[in-house]
Design goal:
It is a single chain. This protein is of the alpha+beta class. It has one domain. 41% of the residues lie in helices and 21% in strands. It contains three helices and four strands. The strands form two sheets. A two-stranded antiparallel sheet has the order 1-2. It is elongated. The chain starts with 5 loop residues before the first strand and ends with a helix. 0% of the residues are buried.
Length: 75
């Protein structure tokens, strides 16, 4: 577990993530992070967009269902 401190950054507040956390998240300066709230009220920080992942799951299911038709259309 890592601790971060909320700091004043200009007219806003922010946190500075330690280098080890940035490495584990595989993020660099300018990347976008997403905060999601869990059922217990805790927050999760991730570089992956959960909405995009949901859309990709739907697309994968559609591609699996229409695999033969898509193969024919690709010819």
């Amino acid at each position: 577990m890592a601790q971060v401190k909320v700091r004043s950054i200009g007219n806003s507040l922010g946190v500075v993530l330690p280098k080890e956390i940035l490495t584990r998240l595989n993020v660099r300066n300018g990347d976008i992070l997403h905060l999601t709230e869990a059922a217990d009220g805790s927050m999760r920080i991730t570089p992956y967009d959960p909405e995009f992942e949901r859309q990709m799951q739907v697309a994968r299911q559609g591609m699996a269902n229409f695999r033969n038709a898509l193969r024919e259309l690709a010819k």
